[in-house]
Amino acid sequence: MHIGMIISRKLKQEKLDASTVAEMLGKSSQAVYDDLKKEDLNTSTLRKYAEILHVPMSSFFEEEEKDNNVLNLREAKNRIRELENEIIALKRGDIHASARVVVELNLTNDEFVKLGLKDKVIQVLNK
User: Fold this and answer.
1) Is the pTM of this model over 0.85?
2) In tens digits, what is the pLDDT along the chain, a chain of 127 residues?
3) Collapsed DSSP state (helix, strand, coil) of residue 111
4) Which residue blocks in 14-105 are alpha helix, DSSP H?
5) Which of 28, 71, 101, 125 is the residue whose CA sits 20 to 30 A from 1?
6) Contacts of 116 (CB under 8 A, 6+ apart)
7) CB–CB of 37/4 below 8 Å?
8) How distant, in Å, are the alpha carbons of 65, 73, 91 from that of 7?
């Protein structure tokens, strides 16, 4: 989430409207609305909003971090749900899991034939 939206939310919590904030900042209401649409603000502007809201500047970034954590938590919950559904489907037999088997043998051609591996390999490849 961008800084403008965070500031806008904090202003609403404090019941401060754009015209009141504009007056406190010495700006027009339109300039305040423009600030609230921006993803980033310069430090001096951010400091002024922090003073009006009586919060440290870092609070704008902490909230952004919380929003990111909530998003990550939602993504994690969705992934867990997907995996749970996949496990259920596997147990019911709706999904047939396959395994990849890799075997490396160091044999001569004669040993390979004597062990009957040639026929087994042909069988597997023909499946």
Assistant:
1) no
2) 578 888 998 899 899 999 999 999 999 999 999 999 998 899 999 999 999 999 998 888 776 556 555 556 667 677 788 888 888 887 887 766 666 667 677 778 787 777 777 777 787 777 6
3) helix
4) 18-25, 29-37, 43-53, 58-92
5) 28
6) none
7) yes
8) 14, 23, 49
